[in-house]
Write a structure and sequence with these properties.
275 residues; alpha/beta; Rossmann fold; 2 domains; seven-stranded mixed beta sheet; three-stranded antiparallel beta sheet; 10 helices; 10 strands; globular
Length: 275
């Protein structure tokens, strides 16, 4: 029998999650909690969502359970070569600018923030390898979910990850890894590293090193306005002068006070830290 959640219990959990990672779950939060977290109450022998809130807040195992809670209520939707028009702009206009301006031969450093299971990070690495094969480029993928990062590190994917990828491209870029599975080739995997990171932990951005481009696509839409502002400002500081921020097609900084310039490319609008 499903344990029901009260409006007050919903508010308590919403505020806890909002404070932890900035995710704003909206009006359907109660239904989401009942559907996705009810099994955890049963596993922990808890009688109510209020008891679950206290467990998350005060139990010694609360931090680990909170990670699992966030895992269950967040979205991890991605696939290879997503939003191709933006990737074309990255490949045709942004990469040449970065490589041309780098006299030392160091390749661009790109951060895929909220990389989920890794398809975006590997897509970026493939585009860099094709457009700047002599440059030692680096792609960092980060996510708040350790589960999806484990999938990213394995680099093995099924048909859903190639839903918009031509079979010819898939067969050329990837290695067979069993029936209905393909593996990212070693040359691309060596360009990528994956780290566990809560985007609200902005002080940790410095550990990623200097960054030329940040992809943060379809992440900000799930965050509260204060969280978006805090993260975007930290993105600005993490980028080198002249660096680019690329958001999802349904996102913008229109309602976020920011120091970024809006740049019109031939096939996309992107944000840039002034040089």
């Amino acid at each position: 029998m499903r344990i029901r959640i009260s409006p007050e219990e919903t508010r308590l959990l919403q505020e806890l999650i909002l404070e932890h990672c900035g995710v704003n779950l909206g009006v359907d939060a109660g239904f989401l909690f009942e559907r996705r977290l009810g099994v955890r109450l049963e596993a922990l022998s808890l009688a109510s969502f209020r008891e679950y809130f206290h467990y998350l807040s005060y139990d010694l195992d609360g931090p680990a359970e909170l990670e699992d809670c966030i895992e269950r209520i967040t979205t991890h939707e991605t696939y290879f070569f997503r939003e191709q028009f933006q990737l074309d702009a990255f490949r045709q206009e942004i990469i040449p600018q970065l490589v041309h301006g780098d006299a030392g031969g160091r390749g661009p450093a790109v951060w895929s923030a909220g990389c989920s299971t890794g398809e975006e990070a590997y897509t970026i690495a493939m585009l860099l390898a094709e457009a700047a094969p002599q440059a030692a480029s680096l792609v960092i993928g980060s996510d708040i979910s350790r589960k999806v990062l484990a999938t990213a590190q394995q680099g093995v994917y099924g048909p859903a990850s190639f839903r918009t990828t031509d079979d010819a491209v898939r067969d050329r870029q990837f290695l067979p890894a069993g029936p209905g599975l393909w593996r990212v080739p070693p040359s691309i995997r060596r360009m990528c590293s994956f780290v566990h990171l809560n985007l609200l932990e902005v002080a940790r951005y410095a550990t990623l090193g200097r960054l030329d481009v940040i992809f943060c696509r379809n992440v900000l839409m799930y965050l509260s306005s204060p969280a978006r502002h805090r993260i975007v400002e930290a993105f600005y500081d993490a980028l080198v002068p002249g660096g680019f921020l690329l958001l999802g097609h349904s996102e913008s900084l229109l309602n976020v006070t920011t120091r970024f310039d809006l740049v019109h490319l031939s096939s996309d609008l992107v944000y840039r830290r002034p040089a």
